[in-house]
Sequence to fold (431 residues):
Amino acid sequence: MPHKEDAEALDVQNASFQSYIPSSEKQKALYKRTLFVISISQIFGGAGLAAGVTVGALLAQQMLGTDAFAGLPAALFTLGSAGAALFVGRLSQAYGRRLGLTAGFMVGGLGAIGVIISAMINSIFLLFISLLIYGAGTATNLQARYAGTDLANSKQRATAISVTMVFTTFGAVAGPNLVNVMGKFALSIGVPSLAGPFILAAAAYTLAGIVLFIMLRPDPLVIARMLEATNQEPGMKGHAASTEHTQNKRGIVVGAAIMVLTQIVMVAIMTMTPVHMRHHGHDLGAIGLVIGFHIGAMYLPSLVTGILVDKLGRTAMAIAAGTTLLLAGLIAAFAPGDSMLLLVIALSLLGLGWNFGLISGTALIVDSTDISTRAKTQGTVDVLIALSGAAGGALSGMIVAGSSYLTLSFVGGILSLLLVPVVIWSRRSEK
Fold:
């Protein structure tokens, strides 16, 4: 009998899904609902990722007693996010966005709890393992941007990405600015102050997972597959789906290269900025403020960026990303260490350049993939992004320990110029 009931429930679900195929109005309504649900989850997800960014390096510095490995936390949770990106991408491909994203956020929450425990018992080994697991939240937070594009037509993709990223801003900016509050709360319950933001991360990632599990119904990726099977473009009844993106390997390579380069530069400079500021006498509140501006610039301009990417083109905004990151690196390199204003400007530009690169690169990936393999390909690309971030985080501490923050920032800025030949190559190949 249970099997008969399961079959009946599946039939009802399939009938419900099928009702979206002939109705462009229902498709548009589901597209808007999907963006709304993803946006809510991104508020929590943004707060969760901010913990590692803000105090991860400081926690490692305190527990290890040296600056040389202060970049390891960023390297570990971005390395962990690489594995998680592959896992979430493949899970989403097989079972839909809802289960893939829910699982990713829940695992990230468990990692944050592990970081808290490691700080309490002063276990370096547990800290490193927990940071790897915590990286699942970072990967899922990025993967969620793809869910907004599943039901977007070809002229809405960058805008859809940007809408979900804008809402990440609310949590991502609040997180660093709650460092002191969460630090005091942590001390009040017998937890080291630097582990305080991870208490917020554990709660935030868990809530993000719950929101997606309950509200992301019907699954946008499942509906998008059904539309493709009937050769329709989402939201456009009877309109044949465009095939220009099908297995465009060059587009995938260019999109991935743009995001990888921007990720390396952003993570490397961002990771060592809190340590650099500590050496110049800035307190946790000042560090939280600078990182808050940085993360705000990573996400808040997204709505405008998305429109620009859709209107001006992917390659134009990729070049803008390289230029902005170069300026950020030069300002960070030559700004006096005690100048809050210049550090805020440098880190804000760093976030903005990353924003330009991520949205233009993501739009290229969506343009260049077929819905039947899209989630899997997106997960694989995000693995490369995470690994590049891990490399940037690991090397940043070593460069600063062996040379200086000036060298790190200057090299990062120059590296961002590689975006220009990548884009020129892609444009020539289109002719």
Observations:
- The domain at 22-430 is CATH 1.20.1250.20 (Growth Hormone; Chain: A;).
